[in-house]
Each structure stands twice: as structure tokens, then as C-alpha cells.
Amino acid sequence: MSTTEEFDPALDEAVREVVTHLPRPRAGKDLTRTDAFRAQWNTAVELGWTGILDDADFTDPGSPESRELLDAACGAVTALARAGFALPLRQTLVARYATAEALPADAIAVHPTAYGVWEPAATALVAADGTVSMPVDGGTADEVDLAGRPYRLMYEMGEGGDEAGEALPRRVADVAELLLLQEILGAAEGAVAEARRYVTERVQFGSPLIKIPAVRTIAGELTVSLRQLDTAVHEARRRFRAGDEHSLHFALITAREVASAVSTEVTRAAHQLHGAMGITEEASLHWRTKLLWADRDEGVFSRDRGLDALPADEVELWTLTTPARAGT
């Protein structure tokens, strides 16, 4: 059983039901330039997804209220990614959490932890210190990533700081990293589900593809990889609730490395099972895998993995690998 099933089933189902009826843009286009983007974003706003963390106070991350808000944000981001839809939900949730200033309900807000992704489309820019500015011209995109998200390249941005070196609040950085991991997990779950559906439904020589031993082996390897990612992300979320920053930092670094490896493996294997069908306009697999690739490489020029901060002492490193206490 996936640990994501602990999220509010009603929220997960609501996201799934809404996105099922959303039109898909043409592949390779800037999503903000498609006819459906603004309508889809307005739907997310009207349903309250973007404002989940507006009143969040994670001073006591283990409190029932904090747990409920964090799980709701994680659940919405995960469900959207599982369906293969790239909207600036994750980035806006973090930006709205990071500022005490009131933002318009429909604002597309971007914070330095987004590493420039969606910044050209932003209607509100939240700085490292939480101050808000409004883009004069909406920004200019350097490129669009594989998921169709416009971005501005950012360089020399160290761990916990923006391009100017201003330190980010640690809790904001933790929330941003955790939501990124949830988005990767959701996209991976969607890709694996699509691959399994395809090999189960696709009949060749009178039998479903899943009957072929080699195909069953690959499908099994996908399940193992997904379980590894699910466990690592779940552990990071549990440590967030426990409130131990040192332990949480280790879990986030570990989960990020697992996510990078699993993203590569899941996309490779899922497309191998689909063959050429996986990249066609009619298939929905590529919406998940392109989001996986884009998230895996997010901030590649500027992200500091934080590996230098890990302890070299064997005893301390062993202590950090101990799972968080059950119930957190």
C-alpha cells in the first residue's frame, strides 16, 4: 500500500476528477501560451488548492493543524503530478507560505526555491526575505523545460540562498524541497500506472504483454523503484513533523538522491514497455515522464545538494539513518 494513501482521499479524488476533464496542450509548447492554461489555473484557484498554506505556521510541525495543512498541500501536488498536469501549484504554495503579505487569490507566485521555473509567467515575485514585488512585463523566458514550463536560468545560487546570496528561511526551503519530492513521487506513480495499464491491455500474439516473462520482470522492477521513492519521501515528511532540522536535512538529501535515480529508471523502463506508443500525442505517458525529467533536473546550474554538510563521523551518520519515530 502506498504511503500517499494517508492523504485525505476526498482531496485526492477531487483533484483526479477535475484534471480528468482538463484538455491537454500540444506537446512541446509553452504551457502559458495554450488556450487552456488560464482556465485550468483558475479552476485550481477556485477549488482552494493554491491557498492551502496561506495560514500555515510550522513552528510546531507536529501539531494536528500543521499535519493537516502539510498533508493537504502534499496531497494536491502529488495528485496533480500523478495525472501528468504541470501547473505552478507547487511553486505558488511555497511562495504564499513564505510571505506574510496578502496576494491576489489568482496570483501565480514564485519564490527563489523555484529556481526560475514559472518565473516568466509569475504575477508576484516573493523574495528570500518574504517581500513581494510585481513583474513589470511578466518576465521573459530563457527557455521552456521538457514539461512545457517557462523558466529563467539561475546561476550560483547556494544552498539556502538566492542569487544574491541572501539566506532563505530554513523552514521555507524544507517545505519547497518536500513539495518537489511529492511532485516527483506523483509523476512517478502516474508513469508506472500508465505502463502497467498498457502492458495489461495491449494484446500481442493472443496474450497481454504482461504475460511475457521479461515484461513482468521490468514491471516488477518498476514497482520496487517506486516503493523505494515512496519510502524515502514518506520518511522525509515524517521527520518534518518531528521538527529535528538536522535529521530532516539528511532525509531530504537522501530522498532527493533517490528521486533522481528513480526518475531516470522509471522513465526509461516505462517508455521501454510502451515502445514508440509512449511518445505519441494520443498516449498520456509522456506527460508524466516529461515532468519527471524536468523536476529531476530543476535548478541543475545552481542547486547545492547539501552533501558537504553531511557528517563524516560514522556513528553520527549511522544515527541519522534511523527512521523517524512511528506516529510522527
Secondary structure elements and pairings:
Elements (H helix, E strand, L loop, with lengths): L8 H12 L16 H10 L17 H19 L6 H10 L10 E2 L13 E3 L5 E2 L9 E2 L5 E2 L18 H32 L1 E2 L2 E2 L4 H30 L2 H30 L10 H12 L17 H7 L8
Parallel strand pairs: 1-2
Antiparallel strand pairs: 2-3, 4-5, 6-7
Overall 3D shape: globular
Fraction of residues in H or I helices: 40-55%
How many helix segments?
Answer: 9
| Terminal-residue CA separation | 18 Å
Strand order of the largest sheet: 1-2-3
Strand count, sense and closure of the main sheet?
A: 3 strands, mixed
Overall mean confidence score, pLDDT: 85
Which strand-content bin applies to the residues? under 5%
Keywords: Flavoprotein
GO molecular function: oxidoreductase activity, acting on the CH-CH group of donors
Domain Acyl-CoA dehydrogenase/oxidase C-terminal: 183-286
Protein name: Acyl-CoA dehydrogenase/oxidase C-terminal domain-containing protein
